[in-house]
Specification:
Strand order of the largest sheet: 10-9-8-7-6-3-12-11
Helix content: 25-40%
Structural class: alpha/beta
Number of domains: 3
CATH superfamily of the largest domain: Dihydropteroate synthase-like
Number of helices: 18
Distance between the termini: 73 Å
Number of strands: 17
Largest sheet: 8 strands, parallel
Shape: globular
Strand content: 15-25%
Oligomer: single chain
Radius of gyration: 27 Å
CATH topology of the largest domain: TIM Barrel
CATH architecture of the largest domain: Alpha-Beta Barrel
Length: 445
Amino acid sequence: MALSGLAIYKHLPKENCKECGLPTCLAFAMKVASGQAGLDDCPKLGDEARGALAEASAPPQRLVTIGEGDGAVSIGQETVLFRHDERFQNACGIAVRVEDSLEEGELAARLDAIKGLSFDRMGQVQAVDMVAVENSSGDSGRFAAAAKKAAALGKAVVLISADPEALKSAGSEIADKRPLLYYSGSADNVETAAKTAVELKLPLGIESPSLETISDMTEKAAKAGLQDIVMSPGREKPSEVLEFLTKTRRAALKKKFRPLGYPTLAFADGTDDAAIVAASWFVLKYAGIVVIDTIEPAAVVAILTSRFNIYTDPQKPVQVEAKLYEINEPGNEAPLLVTTNFALSYYSVESEVEASRVPTHILAVDTEGTSVLTAWAADKFNPETISEALVKTGAAEKVSHHKCVIPGMVAVISGSLEEESGWQVEVGPKEAVGIVSYLTSRWKR
């Protein structure tokens, strides 16, 4: 169990030197107890006290990194059960499963398909970032060869096998890529798998649907010298997987139960709708890695969208850069539409402009990522802020007619905006869906 703030305070220098950035040693102790500060932040803490407080300084859930360089995926170190309490810290990895029993051409085709699973979502690239290679052939050599091909994609790799020797063989081939060795065999042999992971300096995944068994396995692995562990219930029913993910998260965060203080992995086997729904469930509650079978783009983008939504900061709206955008290569006679920099508002306007094929300027006004009506109600989307944006972006130099189009929902500001900016103001459609008709008929006319 983690120590309380007062228990930590007893080991501190009690000098209130403020070098940690906090006014008192007691305040620092409370921050450490809540996981918001580390012992390294105290420059005057002695080695003896540091050793005594090692457990308290460790986060309730360990951070585990798989892969290397730009392809690395870090999971774990979550601090809350519910996103609205703070935010989820490290986005889960989405891994597509590849069996090493596939023929060479089939394997190459599947890996090529995985490479192409990348999508633009509100200006941010969302992609499958892991490959899970499973030793379904039972052949160590074939497993290692498939692992090398998967690692060539530049994505993080999970190696799945019930045979510790097969894991050692494949893991040795790509150890410099830092794959996750996932041992799917008997709990009785977990120490052998742990020793392999320690020898190769790689993280280890272990599985059991029983919380008692999995905690016993993590303790054995830790005694073998392993620190980076990923837990999984294995291939269970979705409801049982969700129960496992929730209970382990609660045990780590609420009870500070160290044997379950590791990130998790869940399998969403199959390519039907039920498997896609299950994968999204696991993303939302609370998998660190979700292994899927499907490579169908429409299915994968649904899973990636779930991840994108749950790992954004609920206190910070998704927004685009506030600037003047040029769509369809507009000239100085092209229309200029005004909206906010709330991502959903901007991309709704942009998609309609692109559909119209009319060259257009779009001015995204900085409203701190709030929508048109919300920003108007909060006095962030008003004649002053729009006029300021027109000047700041140099719109007058790019649009010769000095005419801007505002959303119909805020038609009330049109007169004031003309006086403030000196621009001619037109009132456009209330909803983005009306932009195509507006640009192709009203504007041209």
